[in-house]
Amino acid sequence: MTIREAAAMLGAEIIQNEFEDLPLTGAYTSDLLSDVMANAKEGGALITIQAHKNTVAVATLVNISVIVLCNNRPVQDNDMLEAAKDEGIAVIRTKENQFTVSGKLYSAIHRT
Question: Which residues constitute the domain of residue 21?
Answer without folding.
Answer: 3-111
